[in-house]
Amino acid sequence: MSKRLLVLDVEGTLFETKFKIPGTDLDLTVWQAIAVMLGPGAVSEEVESHRKWQTGKYPSYIDWMKDTIKIHKRHGLSKSVFDQIVASAGYNEGVVETFAEIDRDLFEPVLVTGGFADLAIRANRDLGIAHTFAACEYFFDAKGKLSAFNLLPCDFEGKLDFIRLMLREYGLSDRDWVFVGDGGNDVPIAKMAPVAIGYRPHPKLREVVHHTVFHFKEVLAILTKIPQYAK
Known about the structure:
Elements: E1 4-8, H1 31-38, H2 40-54, H3 61-74, H4 79-88, H5 95-101, E2 107-116, H6 117-127, E3 131-140, E4 146-151, H7 159-169, E5 177-181, H8 187-192, E6 195-199, H9 203-206, E7 211-213, H10 217-224
Parallel strand pairs: 1-2, 1-5, 2-3, 5-6, 6-7
Antiparallel strand pairs: 3-4
Helix pairs in contact: 1-2, 2-3
């Protein structure tokens, strides 16, 4: 019996989103939490960056991230604050239990996120996931100051490139994957997915997914009903 990739978003899908700053259109776990922790000035600049993205002022997602990183540096993001935000993120109800039941002979989980590698790696460790692609990774110097970063175009349409890479590596066709996501930024990938599941989806995402769920354990029920992969 063949295998499929189970491609999942991270922030809002696996982890709870506790911050949504008024004036922004994305529910985020870490990006907006950083702005809130850095204070009103950082929040104001974060909102402005979203406005610039929505009005096409950034040529690419990487340009948006670079601008946001400047905000974090300007307002003094430290390793201790960053680590606190990542460590405090909680899983959505049912995520841990669902991953304990997924048949790994049938589904290979792959994480693709426009967020931070540190958060995605938490899921790797906790949920037994081998493949993660994250848009941003931060590096701090000995004094805890943000000193360097690594960026990948891993959001919006860019997520599809990493999925194609993994399909090729596993020798699978472009029909051999399922996507689970929650945000408006997941619309491009959901439109291309053979099976797209929206977890408490943004209204724009709800319009294009095949299934909508409001508890994460419902994802498992959908997976077991995909005909050619059902036991």
